[in-house]
Structure formats: structure tokens, C-alpha cells
């Protein structure tokens, strides 16, 4: 599995990552998750304006190996959706921390970020 765990991100035990960008948080799935899933063929994205609840399902990612739920790392409102994934879901495989991002969320409770794992705490979950 990948040892490529960016230090500047926060993580969930379910293998989502969160990038804090001022007042919003960009969310995606980790390199470890996409490696475990295999070739991503479909992503069910939430709608703009959708409300996410911390720890709850907000979409589905489907690969040649499995179907997996996406879980919200924080509660908030979806302010951007990566529409490129609709036509090219393999961006999650080729660039999970860049072009393969899934949604951008405006948090309703910024303190929830403090519950997320840093890279050092997330690393053991990839072994």
C-alpha cells in the first residue's frame, strides 16, 4: 500500500481526506482507499447545497472490485462538486489528492476538524 500520506491533510478512519482551505474543506478519498478499491468506474456525487452530516454517508464510489460508501468527515453544506468525476471517475485513481477531489464543504461546526486524524495517526490504518 501507499506510503504517500500528505502531511498537510486531515483523515478519517474510513479513508477520506480533508484539506482545510480557509473557510471551506475539500474532501476526497485517500491513496490507500483508491488502491484498495481498484479502478474507479463511477462516483455518486451529492448535489450542490446538500447538507452533509459528520460520519454519515454522502455518496457512493464504485470500482471494478467493490462498491463503497463515502462518509462525511465533517458536517456542512456542499458548496462545490467535482463534476469532472462524472465523465472521468478514474481521476480518483490517478490523482486522489489533486484532481480526484470529490466535494468542497462549508462546515457548520468547524470544531469537528479537531476530531480528524493527522497523517501520523492515519498511517497505521493503511498497514
UniProtKB/TrEMBL annotation:
GO biological process: glycine decarboxylation via glycine cleavage system; protein lipoylation
GO CC list: cytosol; glycine cleavage complex
SUPFAM superfamilies the UniProt entry points to: Single hybrid motif
Known cofactor(s): (R)-lipoate
Entry annotated with the keyword Transport: no
Modified residues (N6-lipoyllysine): 65
One Pfam family recorded for the sequence: GCV_H
Cofactor: binding details: Binds 1 lipoyl cofactor covalently.
Residue stretches making up the Lipoyl-binding domain: 24-106
Keyword entries, A-Z: Lipoyl
Similarity comment text for this entry: Belongs to the GcvH family.
PANTHER family xref list: GLYCINE CLEAVAGE SYSTEM H PROTEIN, GLYCINE CLEAVAGE SYSTEM H PROTEIN-RELATED
Its job: The glycine cleavage system catalyzes the degradation of glycine. The H protein shuttles the methylamine group of glycine from the P protein to the T protein.
Protein name: Glycine cleavage system H protein
Species of origin: Corallococcus exercitus
